[in-house]
Structures are given as structure tokens and as C-alpha cells.
Amino acid sequence: MNVSLPQTWEQFVAGQVTSGEFGNASEVVREALRLLREQQENRALEEMRTAFSGVDPHGGQGEPTPEARALIGQAIQQHRKSKGRA
């Protein structure tokens, strides 16, 4: 895969490699993607918490059933639609 970056991002990546923080440009991009995925996962977790706030104040235990997972997915989608982010 080849990725084109604006000059400012190329300079930033090169600076990270030059600083010794990363061994090469691929390592910089992998770390950036890892951080993006982590951010998205944290956002999804927060959305789930918000969507289910007050649903189970005693805190459920164990793994959800397939039916519960489907309901969770529906609740998250409804929450996203209510925020305009479907």
C-alpha cells in the first residue's frame, strides 16, 4: 500500500524518524493508526455507556447472550441516529 501525504505530514513523519522515536516511516504510520483505532474504540465504549446509562444500575455480570448483543447493537444505532451520526 502506498499513501500520499501533504508535505507538512511528510516532514512530521520524517522528524519522528530522525528523532529516533521510530525506526522508519511505516512505524510512525502504524502507531498513528493504532492510536486512531484506540480513540474510535474509546468513543464507541463511551457511546455504549451513554446509551445504557441507568439501564442496569446494579451492574450485570457475565457475557451477554446473542439476543442481548443484538439489542445492544440496536440501542447503539438508535443513540448514534439521535446524535446525527448513523
Task: Jot down its keywords.
86 residues, mainly alpha, 0% strand
Tell me the domain tally: 1
**C-alpha Rg (nearest Å):** 20 Å
Q: What fraction of residues sit in β-strands?
A: under 5%
User: Number of helical runs?
Assistant: 3
Question: Largest sheet at a glance?
Answer: none
How would you sum up the global shape?
elongated
Give the helix proportion (percent range).
Answer: 55-70%
Distance between the termini: 29 Å
- What does the average pLDDT come to? 85
- Give the total of beta strands: 0
Description:
- The chain is mostly helical.
- The protein has one domain.
- It has three helices and no strands.
- The chain is elongated and about 50 Å long.
- The mean pLDDT is 85.
Write the SSE topology.
Layout: H1 7-18, H2 25-51, H3 66-82
What does this entry show, briefly?
With 86 residues, the chain is mainly α. Helices cover 65% and strands 0% of the residues. It contains three helices and no strands.
